[in-house]
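Lab notebook page, bench 4
Experiment: in silico fold of construct C2
Operator: M.H.
Input chain length: 530 residues
Purpose: comparison with the prior construct
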Amino acid sequence: MKRILKWGFGLFLIGLILAIAPRSLGVFEPEFNLRILHTNDHHAHLEPITSKETQLGGIAQRKTLIDRLKAENPKETLLLDAGDIFQGTLYFNFYLGQADLPFYNQMNYQVGTLGNHEFDRGQTVLADFIKKAQFPLVSANLKIADFSPLKGLVKPWSIVSVNGEKIGIFGLTTEDTAKMSSPGEGITFINSVEAAKQAVTDLKKQGINKIIGLTHIGFESDLNLAKTIDDIDIIIGGHTHTPLGSMPNATQPYPVVETTPNGKTVLVVTDWEWGKYLGDLKVKFNANGEVISWQGLPHAIDNTIPPDSRFSQQLEALAAPLNTLRQTIIGKTNILLEGSRDKVRTQETNLGNLIADAVLNQLKSDGAQIAILNSGGIRASIPPGNISVSQVIEVLPFGNTIGRVDLTGAQIKQALEHGVSKVELGEGQFPQVAGLQFIYDPKAPIGSRVISVSIIEQNGQSKPLNLNATYRVVTNSFMLNGGDGYEMMKAGKNSVDTGFLFVDAVIDYIKNQSTINIQSGDRIIAKSSI
């Protein structure tokens, strides 16, 4: 009995020592493990994205993978989304986010932030989405007026409990939303850095020492945030569709490791686009809430992952009405809209002009001045008569989104030189343009074919291209990343994939015209035709 009493008293003393020993001594400091699964820039891609070589994404495949990974660490795992669930496929056009939401609820996302495209259809559509979401959507840099439908629905931050530990998660939305989307009256986007500082201060007052920034401001802005503000441990980002680590075309690791002003480690990750990958970051914290070790391993959601059968059935039901949408008549043309391969890859065509005008018009409010598009993305003509949604999809089948970038006049001239460098071969890099006119000699040496370039201003006035000036250029997501050899696009500044589908921009543009009668012949002039 005495031995038992002594043993019990010994345990009591050890427990007392653990309770009163200051953590600063470094004795018996507990460590905390956290696993974060995350996505961003989903853009209504419920179905897999397929090509001849690969299949990536799919909401049913994502469900299978998430369930599998959660089962490994059920008490330690967070599931987060960094914005732009809206906009990008016909699922959004038809369901306005309500097709995606049930899947997100069933996957048990715990926190999301608002991307710029969440505002594309105004505040009422977004409010309806948030009210039905079974997880909070946070953004610290929104000021919401009392009359807004969003009043009281968006908090700056949320606190979640993971395995007994409290984690603070604040959100940020790009300040460019005001000019890139349609938020309407009553929403103000304030400085994201100042908003983040306030959110961190507020969370620390709540006794939180593990803080995550769930942001939709772009990768470079995420890195700046990490280096500017103390006490952020992890930044989960979106907006710029940046691949990291093992993702295709990645140039930086997953995670990127930065240092806060007070010398602490902060991890920055993002998960590319369209649900093609699932971000997976394991982090260990010490008792003071400091990151002490980590492991990053994003997962490709490819055809080795079987789809969840219940999700597949739900998706099949949602897909059925889209066939009707595809047959919807959106306008009329009195003339052939020329998109045949031999014409569109060797000369200006009226269909090329229509598409360039449509995407330039989409970003006029963002200061866009010209559009340069590769003709290889145009795959069919539209005959005289009624125009249907399915015909526009046939013309633009690749699902390209609209990109914008600031280029110097010299870079624009370089792009045009590249565009006409293989005109005699009928390559897809041949440009279709809006907002400018250029003259070239197809028989001159490659790199010296462009004779003159003029910028056509909104008032119709023409001015010579200034090689030293900077112009805002609209293009597609493929070219923005150097596709079709347009490497100079990658050297531009303020590059953004807006997430707007080319198909949507052209459909909306056609809807707003009574009848299409667009002509060609005055934008791209070959010297032999002068």
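Observations: The chain has 16 helices and 28 strands. The two ends are 111 Å apart (CA to CA).
Next step: discuss at group meeting.
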